[in-house]
Design brief:
Elements lengths: L2 H4 L8 H26 L7 H17 L1 E2 L6 E2 L1 H13 L1 H21 L6 H24 L13 H30 L4 H9 L3 H20 L2 H83 L9 H17 L5 E8 L2 H8 L1 H18 L5 E4 L4 E7 L4 H15 L3 E3 L2 E3 L3 E7 L7 H17 L4 E3 L2 H20 L5 E10 L5 E12 L3 E3 L1 H11 L2 H22 L7 E6 L1 H4 L3 H13 L6 E6 H6 L1 H12 L4 E7 L6 H6 L4 E4 L1 H5 L9 H12 L3 E5 L4 H10 L3 E3 L7 E2 H10 L28
Parallel strand pairs: 8-9, 11-13, 13-14, 14-15, 15-16, 16-17, 17-18
Antiparallel strand pairs: 1-2, 3-5, 3-8, 4-5, 6-7, 10-11, 10-18, 10-19, 11-12
Helix pairs in contact: 2-5, 2-6, 2-7, 3-4, 3-5, 4-5, 4-9, 5-6, 6-7, 7-8, 7-9, 12-13, 13-14, 16-17, 18-20
Bound molecules: ligand C2E and magnesium ion (MG) (2 copies).
């Protein structure tokens, strides 16, 4: 077996077992040694001297031991007692002293607070007893030089003898101690011996030296020498103890200083670590705050450039890109672009009927569809509530831009279901082609908006901007502004066109027709300004004025002659006003103020206005009917009435649109439609009135078809109130034969039909 194998560290698992085994073996061997020593102890041993040594070794020596500075070992007088006993009383007595002194020492140390378990005490005692037993065994059995003797005569012999004994004892005890330490784990065996046990040789050497000195003093038997030696020893011991204590104190102070320095350093380190932690936390917080700041900055940037609902670029973002395109086009005319202005049709109606939440969803769906249908190089933006704009690039002609617009129009209209509602989106698109005249994005958008406006008005879906459109638009804006002033400037006046019973030629009443005599432009035709009034909402206050004016006028005429008492006035009501609940009160007030019979007031609602929101129209007309007034469906035949709705509308008269009367030829050709409408009215038990009668043949055909009433230039043109009043006095019959002499239009006031007929 190699030395390295022999001293290989026991594995962790069996370390404890080995430790117990070794301890047991050593204890057993020590017990055997101790037993043999006791049995070999000669009777002469028990003397005052032996007792003195024993008492000294067990009681005094532990207390006198000097702990060497920075060492695990102490200079103990017990070794001196053991060696002295060996020299004077022999090996067995030395074994006994060694065992007892070791036991006493352990107990003393334990009483001083050192941790000494029973096993540890047993081990210590065993090591001591065994090492002295081994020393004795070697003494007995190993041949020795003649000068190594139990009774050394000379000092040299004494040194040799005690040196040999100390060596053996040191060898055995240090090896045993190293074995125990080594088994517990850590460094290798020899390393353990060298580091932990070698320095213990000091105690044996000092002990041997002391024993030699005492032995010599005892050998001389001289009391004075003994006392002097004792005193010298005592002084040496005390001074040595003092210096050791001083060294120990100095070490302690140094250690304490070191410890406190270390503690201070630890504290500093702790503080530095704490500071570093705090710094890290502050940095982390700062980093988080910075990140939040950066995020809010990007959010802000995003919010400044994107629409929050659809996430499309907003007006500003669109404008920025468009500005670049305008500049580029100026530099290079090949870099064409087209701007599409898209406005969702009837979005207000969607919002009102489905609510804003679903309205928002419709906008999001529209946005998604637009994006899907366009190239990535194009830009689509939300520039207002239901307004979107598209920037088309890389397109060479307006025709291609129009195609894109048509495609958008077609695809957007696919119906979809939203919270159980079937919704379809319509859109009007205006296209503004690039032009070097453009200086700013606003100008391009404005022109695309104008085109969109006409797409809506013409119901064409798509319209392309032209300069002529802009002029028309500007004119329209001017009309709108002037119309606001028209009432106060007294530029508005009523014209009255007679409504005739074509069967008997009597006057049934008049249709009130609005006239606008613009102070600068002159007469503006109703079909030009009425749509503007409707779109701007001005039609409502104007109609309120018309209702008052016409009912007051009728009341006045009715009083002229009892024959006029049943004359009626027919007032045109726009679809915009019909959707406004205030109409009921407006009508009520007009009747109240004029005090006319409500049945003498007739309201004309065009077929298309009545059908636009049929259910609401039915409800409104029913409420109006409750006021006792009459209702007429105007321009019948042009507005795609559903028969089922027509049946439910509470009207009194059906007014055939003049286009049907106009299309009838001299010989009564194309009269089928007229015939159908008249039959329909009869079936519905309504009166029929035909407008636009211009020829005798038209009149006689209508008479033959059983039409009740007629209105037209043949019978009478629209008249100013003064002319109408004159005619009221003059005319007896309103049919053409009898009035041949009066066929000419009356001349007169600025707002009458002497001016060009529109
Ligand atoms: P409308 O309600 O159908 O009125 C009849 C129109 O036909 C009138 O045109 C009248 O002058 C015209 N007319 C009557 N007989 C003949 C004829 O024999 N031949 C031709 N060619 N035309 C004839 P006007 O006054 O230009 O009014 C046009 C439209 O403007 C009206 O059509 C009506 O829709 C609207 N309008 C006129 N006045 C008012 C008003 O006070 N309020 C509202 N809301 N609309 C009005
Ligand atoms: Mg009318
Ligand atoms: Mg009409």
């Amino acid at each position: 077996m190699k030395r390295s194998d022999l001293f290989a560290q026991p594995s962790h698992l069996n370390r404890e077992t080995v430790s117990y085994l070794v301890k047991g073996t050593v204890s057993l061997a020590a017990a055997v040694g101790f037993g043999l020593a006791l049995s070999d102890l000669p009777g002469t041993t028990f003397s005052w001297g032996f007792l003195l040594i024993l008492v000294f070794a067990t009681l005094a020596a532990p207390r006198l031991s000097l702990t060497l500075p920075r060492s695990r070992f102490a200079i103990s007088f017990s070794d001196a007692a053991v060696f002295l006993t060996f020299l004077i009383y022999g090996g067995p007595a030395a074994v006994v002293v060694a065992a007892l002194e070791s036991l006493a020492n352990c107990l003393y140390l334990r009483s001083r607070g050192y941790v000494f378990g029973r096993m540890m005490i047993l081990t210590n005692v065993s090591i001591n007893a065994l090492s002295v037993s081994a020393m004795y065994f070697v003494w007995l059995n190993v041949p020795r030089a003649p000068f190594i003797t139990p009774d050394p005569g000379t000092t040299q012999h004494l040194i040799a003898t005690l040196g040999s004994l100390a060596l053996v004892q040191f060898a055995v005890s240090s090896l045993l101690a190293a074995t125990f330490v080594w088994i517990r784990g850590g460094a290798g065996f020899w390393e353990t011996w060298r580091k932990d046990c070698f320095s213990s040789s000091m105690t044996q050497i000092v002990g041997a030296g002391l024993a030699a000195l005492l032995f010599k003093v005892i050998q001389y038997g001289d009391g004075i020498t003994g006392v002097i030696a004792f005193l010298a020893l005592l002084i040496a011991y005390l001074s040595y103890r003092q210096s050791i204590n001083e060294v120990n104190d100095a070490i302690l102070t140094a250690e304490t200083a070191e410890r406190s320095k270390a503690e201070i350093e630890r504290e500093r380190r702790r503080e530095a670590e704490k500071y570093a932690d705090e710094l890290a936390a502050t940095l982390e917080k700062e980093e988080k705050a910075n990140a939040a700041l950066r995020k809010s900055e990007t959010d802000l940037q995003h919010a400044a450039l994107y629409d929050s609902l659809t996430n499309l670029p907003n007006r500003k973002h669109f404008g920025d890109r468009l500005r670049v395109m305008i500049d580029e086009y100026k530099q290079d005319p090949r870099k064409t672009f087209f701007v599409l202005f898209l406005d969702l049709r009837k979005f207000k109606h969607i919002n009102d009927s489905l609510g804003h939440v679903l309205g928002d969803k419709v906008l999001m769906i529209a946005a998604k569809r637009f994006v899907r249908m366009l190239n990535s190089s194009d830009m689509v933006a939300r520039i207002g509530g239901d307004e979107f704009a598209v920037l088309l690039t890389g397109i060479s002609s307006v025709g291609k831009a129009q195609k894109v617009a048509r495609r958008l129009l077609d695809n957007i209209s696919h119906p979809f279901s939203l919270s159980g509602n079937q919704v379809s989106i319509g859109v009007n698109i205006g296209i503004a082609p690039c032009d070097t005249e453009y200086e700013s994005p606003e100008e391009v958008l404005r022109d695309a908006d104008i085109a969109m406006h006409y797409a809506k008005e013409w119901n064409s879906g798509v319209a392309i901007f032209t300069k002529e459109l802009r002029e028309r638009f500007l004119e329209r804006i001017r009309y709108e502004n002037d119309l606001r002033q028209a009432l106060t400037r007294k530029e508005l006046a009523m014209s009255y066109q007679p409504l005739i019973d074509i069967q008997d030629g009597s006057l049934m009443g008049f249709e009130a027709l609005l006239r606008w005599h613009h102070s600068e432009i002159g007469n503006i035709p109703p079909n030009k300004f009425i749509p503007i009034a409707e779109e701007s909402g001005l039609i409502v206050p104007i109609t309120v004025w018309i209702l008052e004016e016409t009912t007051r006028q009728l009341a006045y005429w009715q009083k002229i002659d009892p024959a006029f008492r049943n004359l009626i006035v027919s007032v045109n009501i726009s679809g915009k006003h019909l959707s406004n609940d205030d109409l009921i009160t407006d009508v009520e007030q007009a009747i109240e103020r004029s005090k006319i019979d409500p049945a003498c007031l007739k309201l004309e609602i065009t077929e298309s206005a009545a059908m636009e929101n049929a259910e609401h129209s039915i409800a409104m007309l029913k409420r109006l009917k409750l006021l006792g007034i009459q209702l007429s469906i105007d321009d019948f035949g042009t507005g795609y009435s559903s028969l089922s709705y027509l049946h439910r509308l509470p009207f009194d008269t059906l007014k055939i649109d003049r286009s049907f009367v106009y299309s009838v030829g001299e010989k009564g050709e194309n009269s089928e439609i007229l015939q159908t409408i008249i039959s329909l009215a009869k079936n519905l038990k309504k009166k029929v009135i035909a407008e636009g009668i211009e020829t005798d043949s038209q009149l006689s055909l209508l008479q033959n078809l059983g039409c009740d009433y007629g209105q037209g230039y043949l019978l009478a043109r629209p008249q100013t109130k003064e002319n109408m009043e004159r005619l009221l006095y003059e005319r007896r019959s309103w049919l053409p034969e009898e009035n041949a002499a009066e066929e000419h239009e009356p001349q007169g006031s600025p707002a009458c039909e002497t001016l060009p007929v529109f």
